[in-house]
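Listing 4. Sequential folding, example run.
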Amino acid sequence: MIKSAETARERILTAANKLFYAEGIRAVSLDTIAEKAGITKKTVYYHFKSKDDLIEAYLASRDQPTSISSGSGLGKPKVICRTRWRQSSAR
């Protein structure tokens, strides 16, 4: 079965998210991200020009509201969780 380009990009971002969080951005190589995502390094470069571009996309995804249904915060959220954050930050 051939995976779509969107799916590969999401898998790259999901792998990067987990690895960057666990090991730090500087410590993780594109080889490690590709291996974790189950794709080739060439596919990573197809979606991102450089590690800096991947980091930019990773940081942008972290700025998005999280979804209760998808847990990763990388997909389209079905239920926005900003209300609780605003309530807790107002204290």
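-- end of first protein; second protein begins --
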Amino acid sequence: MTTKEKILDAAQDLIQTRSFHGFSYQDMADRVGIRKPSLYHHFDSKDAILVELVGRYYAEMNLIGEEALHRLANARLFEIQHARQFSVSTCAERASQDFGSNHRRSQERSRDGS
């Protein structure tokens, strides 16, 4: 994990536990285990950290959304395939029943007519 990722993770934790205005750069430095001036090498302000966190959150939510859409599409495809298979098997069953009924009637007519 890079220092930048550690800073973002620490900031996220601090925001969740204290709020954005409830922690300082020094708090983040202490959490990450670096000196406060070193934070400025990665981010020039808390606002810059917040923007990066929102971007990271957005990317994660976008990925989750894409995965959910993929699962939904696969589930819908399965439903369509299942419906087609059911429809085909139902039609085949009905056709078989109709053929059997028609065949029996035809045999009965043949017997009656002979």
